[in-house]
Amino acid sequence: MNDTVIGVIGGSGIYEIEGLEGSEWVAVDTPWGEPSDRILTGSLNGVRMAFLPRHGRGHVHSPTTVPYRANIDALKRLGVTDVVSVSACGSFREEMAPGDFVIVDQFIDRTFAREKSFFGTGCVAHVSVAHPTCARLGAVAAEAAEAAGAKVHRGGTYLAMEGPQFSTLAESRMYREVWGCDVIGMTNMPEAKLAREAELCYASVAMITDYDSWHPDHGEVDVSEIIRTLMGNAEKGRALAAGLPGRLSGERAACGQGCDRALDHAILTRPEARDPEFVAKLDAVAGRVL
Ligand SMILES: CSC[C@H]1O[C@H](OP(=O)(O)O)[C@H](O)[C@@H]1O
Ligand SMILES: Nc1ncnc2[nH]cnc12
């Protein structure tokens, strides 16, 4: 099997990680355009790591304009096998309080203005996202977060909204009371779907920053409050990332859930009917099966 290479996608307020040996910001070209930023590569405890700030350093990209396909392709191109995404999220649950971490395991995707697949005309594929996150990697992220001193909730449903505005009160109540969601954010979709198409194990750590707008005892969502909470959590976020390599062995066994073989039976277009130019763009994400 391949060696483990850990990718960390840092969300709002997380624009770099510290302590990587031999660290270097590298530019990666992809057939899907430029990623959000250069990618910080290096190693920790002998395990290679790659860190990508989702919104770019300086927070340049909005949730809608984050180049999700380029980001996932670039990580895959660098040899990443396991992606841990860290995101600021609102909470729909009293007990999931600001400052807590939630290991997300389900999503409801309400985004509508983003490219959601690497595949399309010339090479059609359908992967399953019934279980959109990797349970093994999520458990590792939970352990690392707990060791970093965070209160961790294992499991939660993330409502992915388009944004950039926060939800109305009626939406917030519907997501919470009718749809049974636990947290809300603007970026984990299509990121998780694309990671699955690229056969990457993907775990999502939601750092709770606010109670969205439903909570009668809390005011409306406010970016400065979100950033204040994130800054208060920055040390735990860094320790979480630093705790990953020690918990993932260098040599990688096949994923028990099959994340790394998601394309085995997914491609529908017959080989002779595929568009060679389009197929060439899939070299990194689907080269294993094309
Ligand atoms: C800073 S408030 C809203 C912003 O924060 C979250 O970003 P990320 O998921 O990258 O941490 C949320 O999804 C919005 O994009
Ligand atoms: N309440 C909220 N809604 C959407 N994205 C968020 N990111 C942080 N808090 C959020």
From TrEMBL:
Catalytic activities: S-methyl-5'-thioadenosine + phosphate = 5-(methylsulfanyl)-alpha-D-ribose 1-phosphate + adenine
InterPro entries listed in its UniProt record: MTAP, Nucleoside_phosphorylase_d, Nucleoside_phosphorylase_sf
Residue ranges annotated for the Nucleoside phosphorylase domain, each copy included: 6-236
Chain positions recorded as phosphate binding sites: 12, 54-55, 87-88, 187
Signal peptide: none
SUPFAM superfamilies for the chain: Purine and uridine phosphorylases
Residues noted as binding substrate in the record, renumbered to the chain: 186, 210-212
Origin: domain of life: Bacteria
Listed EC numbers: 2.4.2.28
GO molecular function (one): S-methyl-5-thioadenosine phosphorylase activity
GO biological processes: L-methionine salvage from methylthioadenosine; purine ribonucleoside salvage
Pathway(s) annotated for this protein in UniProt: Amino-acid biosynthesis; L-methionine biosynthesis via salvage pathway; S-methyl-5-thio-alpha-D-ribose 1-phosphate from S-methyl-5'-thioadenosine (phosphorylase route): step 1/1
Key word RNA-binding present: no
Record site feature (Important for substrate specificity), residues: 167, 223
Keywords, ordered alphabetically: Glycosyltransferase, Purine salvage, Transferase
GO cellular component: cytosol
Keyword Ribonucleoprotein: no
Subunit structure: Homohexamer. Dimer of a homotrimer.
Entry's family note: Belongs to the PNP/MTAP phosphorylase family. MTAP subfamily.
PANTHER family found in the cross-reference section: S-METHYL-5'-THIOADENOSINE PHOSPHORYLASE
Protein role: Catalyzes the reversible phosphorylation of S-methyl-5'-thioadenosine (MTA) to adenine and 5-methylthioribose-1-phosphate. Involved in the breakdown of MTA, a major by-product of polyamine biosynthesis. Responsible for the first step in the methionine salvage pathway after MTA has been generated from S-adenosylmethionine. Has broad substrate specificity with 6-aminopurine nucleosides as preferred substrates.
Protein name (database record): S-methyl-5'-thioadenosine phosphorylase
